[in-house]
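I had to read the description of the data format several times before I understood it. For illustration, here is how one protein appears when written out as sequence plus structure tokens:
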Amino acid sequence: MYVNELSSHHWLIHDSPKKLAHIQESARQNEYANRWLSTDAATRDKIKRESLVSLGSPSAKAGGVAAQVVAAIAAVEIPHDQWPDLIGSLLGFVNNPQAATNLKIATLQAIGFICESIVCNFNRPNLLF
């Protein structure tokens, strides 16, 4: 669908296939983000809570997947001023002396993934903290 629209533009004729793939991926990400944001709030909140709980899984692999899920949701919600307590919660997990090592590791992974995926908005410096 997007390929047909974009291929009609003359600038794409000389551009690399990588640029076209990037445009398609960006469109796909926007579609996923819009679907997530259109999901009812109760369902989104349940998924977010369960994802945070899963960070503490005794399985390092499950914790790593939970970190990716948390980061993917954060990448959509934080720019829309959603999930305002996320960073504070994650920092609380890391700074809790009684927290299990697996929880701390997965939480640090989540924070790293979030930092990689969020584009900073310098007009709103207090967005994350």
